[in-house]
Amino acid sequence: AEFYLAEEEPPLGVLRAAIRRQTIANAITPVFMGSAFKNKGVQPLLDGVVSYLPAPTEVTNCALDLDKDEKQVGLTGVSSDPFVGLAFKLEEGKFGQLTYMRIYQGKVGRGDTIQSMAADRRKVRIPRLVRMHANEMEDVESVGAGDIVAMFGVDCASGTTFTDGKTKLSMTSMFVPDPVISLALVPADKNAPNFSKALGRFTKEDPTFRVHTDDESGQTIISGMGELHLEIYVERLKREYGVECSTGNPKVAFRETASTRSKFAYTHKKQSGGSGQFGRVEGYLEPISSDALGQGAYEFDNQLVGNMIPPEFVTAIDKGFREAMLKGTLTGSPVMGMRVVLQDGLAHAVDSNELAFRAAAQGAFKQAMATAKPVLLEPLMSTEVAVPAEFQGTAVALVSQRKGTVNSMEGAEFVTIDADVPLESMFGFS
Length: 430
Known about the structure:
Distance between the termini: 44 Å
Strand content: 35-45%
Radius of gyration: 28 Å
Strand order of the largest sheet: 7-6-12-3-4-11-8-9
Structural class: alpha+beta
Largest sheet: 8 strands, antiparallel
Number of helices: 8
């Protein structure tokens, strides 16, 4: 500020130090322009990483202690402490899976045995460690805190935490948004051996890429974060695995919700010789937020008084409602933004069991949704269209044709139109 007020040009060192302080404080974000295709601007970008971004010891990284109910624990970033590393990227190479890992604490060397903190808690031995330089590899014997290396021969999923086994720490999981678009994928050769292998590899590499088989049609459905996202994977199937595929019309991820509170009082009763099934649940369901329908996922509120329903069956009721919300009453889309309140019920000394109360919860959900004025929610895309001023009317008409809502228009010679457009109308729009 003193240099600015004195109308003097600040020295380069002072300017870099100021940018670094503000970047680490998350006050500003330096932007570099360049192109990897022509190797333009790559070196200034790497210099900027060194000059402006914090060193591993200058930030606080936290892990979850799995032995202490996921209590948050700070990592020191010191190589002499127990090893903690995160596998953040996978790549299929000519020598097998290449796993990129950042070392958050401790050190690890070639030949060491490390333990996965995933559900299987599997121990693996590191046969080879390499430091990557673009597409070149440099073999290293050991690495310490702050280093980023690649490992061969370690089979894991993206986002897996590894330790030396002395501690049971796991890095906080990455936020993975729900997919917004799906495509039906049909291989030209249904017996192509690499089809399943490729999809399995892609799902391990990218948590936002999902694959499932539709129960009704039997089709393979791929889901992702956008049209281009899925197109890239279809192209990779052809280029890397030699599997030609055709895609069906995109399937947009619609959701359902209720717009008003609705009571339920449902009895599930089934007798077929011997002990039968009996369960009764009473309460109501309502939107979590009446101002913004569909906000939130699912909440279960147990307001039972007394012991009309034994406590061991409450979990089954909760599970039954969760299962029922996977398929709404309008289009079969998942239901979101709902709160279920359990107030009363009834159990039978002989015929009541977990299966009966799960079925009672599912029946109660359908009963309540019938009078809850269910509505269908569709994803909207925040769209920005930039055009010369003379084409402003045409651009607005194009947005309106796609059922979009124009929020604002700014600019004189060059107009930027901000609009919300239904995702279903945006396929192929550019």
